[in-house]
């Protein structure tokens, strides 16, 4: 059965990024350096979950040739239940999640409006503080079969990230405002009467 690459590709709805190592590749457990991100998908986003299931099923079909013509009994799949696997992490409550990786740096951008042709135009993001663990994005993923050292399954490849909304930092990072709110600074001007509240 021939599977075309589009069958294993998914553009998510609005998801939240966690463990976002998207600016510099990192090695996990001494392995090859890769860009990676955990993608948190609300359980209420039935359409994204449906698309992921269909893409995983397509990748399983592709994998049969790697796995001796049949689906292994202990096949590893990428989508996991945050309520079951991360019960102590409130960010994962009510979400499914998957970990996506790439050897190549993902495209990272934000939408800036529609062009004359009616298509959305994007601006590349180069500021590493603008896309972070905790912000919201739509993500392009590609699912593929693997057979590595006895482990067989389907993994998620990270293609592109389009930021759509800010969110609270995950991973314990406090905001600049919270960190320094009670500190004394010399020669600080009182701006309480100004219309523009800087960094509010």
What does this structure look like?
Strand 8 (136-148) and strand 9 (151-165) form a beta hairpin. Helix content is 14%, strand content 38%. The chain has a single domain (5-171), classed as Nucleic acid-binding proteins (OB fold (Dihydrolipoamide Acetyltransferase, E2P)). The longest helix is centred in the first third of the chain and has 18 residues, at 46-63. It has helices at residues 46-63, 82-85, 176-180; strands spanning 9-11, 15-26, 34-42, 80-81, 95-102, 107-114, 120-124, 136-148, 151-165. Mean pLDDT is 88; it is low at 195-200. It has a five-stranded mixed barrel with strand order 2-3-5-9-8. The chain is mostly beta strands and 200 residues long.
Topology:
Blueprint lengths: L8 E3 L3 E12 L7 E9 L3 H18 L16 E2 H4 L9 E8 L4 E8 L5 E5 L11 E13 L2 E15 L10 H5 L20
Parallel strand pairs: 5-9, 6-9
Antiparallel strand pairs: 1-8, 2-3, 2-8, 3-5, 4-5, 6-7, 8-9
């Amino acid at each position: 059965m021939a599977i075309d690459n589009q069958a294993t590709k998914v553009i998510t709805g609005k998801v939240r990024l966690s463990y976002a190592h998207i600016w510099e590749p990192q090695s996990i457990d001494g392995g090859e350096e890769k860009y990676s991100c955990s993608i948190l998908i609300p359980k209420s986003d039935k359409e994204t979950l449906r698309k992921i299931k269909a893409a995983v099923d397509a990748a399983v079909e592709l994998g049969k040739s790697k796995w001796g013509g049949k689906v292994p009994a202990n096949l590893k799949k990428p989508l996991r239940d945050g309520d079951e696997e991360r019960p102590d992490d409130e960010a994962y409550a009510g979400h499914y999640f998957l970990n996506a990786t790439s050897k190549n740096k993902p495209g990272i951008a934000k939408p800036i409006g529609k062009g004359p042709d009616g298509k959305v135009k994007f601006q590349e993001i180069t500021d590493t503080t603008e896309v972070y663990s905790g912000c919201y994005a739509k993500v392009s993923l590609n699912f593929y079969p693997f057979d590595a050292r006895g482990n067989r399954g389907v993994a998620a490849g990270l293609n592109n990230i389009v930021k759509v909304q800010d969110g609270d930092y995950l991973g314990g990072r406090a905001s600049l405002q919270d960190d320094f709110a009670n500190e004394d600074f010399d020669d600080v001007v009182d701006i309480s009467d100004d219309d523009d509240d800087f960094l509010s």
